[in-house]
Write a structure and sequence with these properties.
single chain; 424 residues; alpha/beta; five-stranded parallel β-sheet; two-stranded parallel sheet; 7 strands; 49% helix
Amino acid sequence: MNEPLAERIRPKTLEDYISQEHLVGKNGYLTQHIKNGIIPSLILWGPPGIGKTTLANIIATESKRPFYVLSAINSGVKDIREVIEKAKQSGGLFTTKNPILFIDEIHRFSKSQQDSLLGAVEKGWITLIGATTENPSFEVIPALLSRCQVYILNSFEKKDLLNLLHRAIEKDTIISSKKIVLKETDALLRLSGGDARKLLNIFELLITSTDNKQITITNKFVIDRVQKNMARYDKTGEQHYDIISAFIKSIRGSDPNAAVYWLARMIEGGEDVKFIARRLLILASEDIGNANPTALILANNTFQAVSTIGNPESRIILSQCAIYLANSPKSNASYEAIGKAQQLVSETGDLSVPLHLRNAPTKLMKDLDYGKNYKYAHSYDNNFIEQEFLPEEIAKTKLYEPGNNTRENNFREFLKKRWEKYGY
C-alpha cells in the first residue's frame, strides 16, 4: 500500500478529530455552525501538519456538501473559474447547501487569483475554506478577508501527538500487525516539530525499516534510524519554523554571524523576503524596543524596500538590517509591559474610567462631573503634574520596568523624579 500512514488514519468525523476544542469541541464555533447547517466562508490559520485539510474534509462531509479542492501551488485563475462553474452546477438552484471550495495554502495565491474568488463567495455560489500557515491579515486581500471568518488552529500539545501515535498503533492495519511499545517518545516528538503529518511519516519509517515483529521505541532507536538532516530548507513547512526561530534567536542573542547564516539558508531555500522582513519588524520592537528606537524605523524601511525591490537584491537589504539588529542593545521591556497589562485587564475586567479623565462633549456630561479636576500637564512646570491615570482599583500598579541599557536607564531616572508611587 503506497498511501502514507497520515492518510490511512486521517479522521473522518468531528468525534475522531484530535485537539482544537475551541473549534470542534461540544460547544466549539464550527461544531455549532455544522449543527445549524450554516457554514460561513472561512480561513483556517495554523502551523503545518495541524489538521487544516482534515477539518475542511470533515466540515464538507458532516454538512453533506459537494467538496472541491485546489492547491495554490499549482492552480491558476483558469482552474479557479472551472471549479466555480462546476460548483455552481452541482449546487443547483433549489438547495441552500452550496458547495465547499477548499484552497490549500491560499496565501500563495496572487491578488488576481484571490480577486477571481470574490464574486463566487459574495453571490453564495461557493463556501470558501482557505488554509494558510501565514498571517491572513498580510497574505489575503482585504476584500476576500472581509467575507471570511478567520479561525486559528492551535499547535498540538504533547498529549495530542501521543494520542495520534496510539491511534496509529491501534487502528492502522499495517502498524497494528506488529507489537509496538512506546517506551520513550521525546526524540520522536522533537523531530516532528509538532507537525502531525511529519510525526506519522517518521513513525511509519521507523516501523517499516525493520522486519522485527516486536519494536520498542526509544530515543536512541529513533535517532539512530532517522537521518539527522531530514530535508533541505522547505518554505512549505519542513524546516520553515525551525530556521526562522534560529534566525530570530541569533539576532536576539546579538550574534550577527549566526544571523546572516540562517538568513542565507532561508534565501537559498526560496523563502518569501517579505516574510523575513516582517519577522525583523516584529523583533525590532519585541527584542530591541526603546533600547534603540531607530531599530524599528530601519526594520520598517527594510520591509518597504524588499516589498518594492524583490529578489535577488533584497538579500543585501535584509543582511544589513539583520546585522544592525543583532548589534543593537536589547530590551523586551515594552513587550513585557503590554503582556502584564493584558493579563491585568483579563483579571480585573472593564474598570470604569476615572471621572477626571473622561471626555465631556455635552452639558449633561459636564453636570455629571466628567472631566472635573483634570489637571492639564502643560499648565504646570516641566509640563508635569502628578495625578492618577489608572482606575482606583489598580492605582499604583507598575507595568513598565525599563530595561538595563543606556536609553532606558535614562527613562528610569526620568520616571523616578516623577512617580514615587511606582517605586522606580
